[in-house]
Design goal:
Elements: H1 5-21, H2 25-29, E1 32-39, E2 46-47, H3 49-62, E3 66-76, E4 83-93, E5 99-112, E6 115-125
Parallel strand pairs: 1-6
Antiparallel strand pairs: 1-2, 3-4, 4-5, 5-6
Length: about 130
């Protein structure tokens, strides 16, 4: 049986979680396109893989040492274009298993030479701003 689009995106997310959890931020950034856009909570848009490495390594160093991604919805754009979207939820966990942060994200994926890559990644915490 052929893999569905959701299966393919979930498989890519497994790679993402493995890279993040093991602290392999170069490997994690290689899951993104060279011209990717990363749009984290409370920060300007970052373009390119260096931003991916910087953002996720800083979350890891701050105490979110494990990530769990839960797919909510995956869909295709025009079938003639190798692009898809994913709407999902994330949880960063502390070393002791407690929640470090939870939120939601939206990714636009690009398929390049048969492989899905994150092109635009927007994520926002569910934690309300302090103050």
């Amino acid at each position: 049986m052929a893999a569905t689009l959701k299966d393919e995106i979930e498989a890519a997310n497994v790679k993402f979680m493995h890279c993040y959890d093991s602290g392999d931020f170069v490997g994690l950034s290689n899951l993104y396109t060279a011209d990717c856009r990363l749009m984290p909570t409370g920060a300007a848009t970052l373009i390119g893989k260096d931003g991916v490495q910087a953002v996720f390594s800083s979350v890891h160093k701050a105490g979110g040492v494990k990530v769990v991604l839960e797919v909510v919805e995956v869909g295709a754009f025009d079938p003639s274009v190798d692009m898809a979207y994913e709407r999902s939820q994330y949880t960063f966990m502390k070393e002791n298993g407690e929640t470090f942060d939870q939120g939601k994200y939206l990714v636009i994926w690009k398929k390049i030479e048969g492989v899905w890559y994150l092109y635009t990644d927007i994520f926002n915490t569910n934690t309300p701003p302090s103050g």
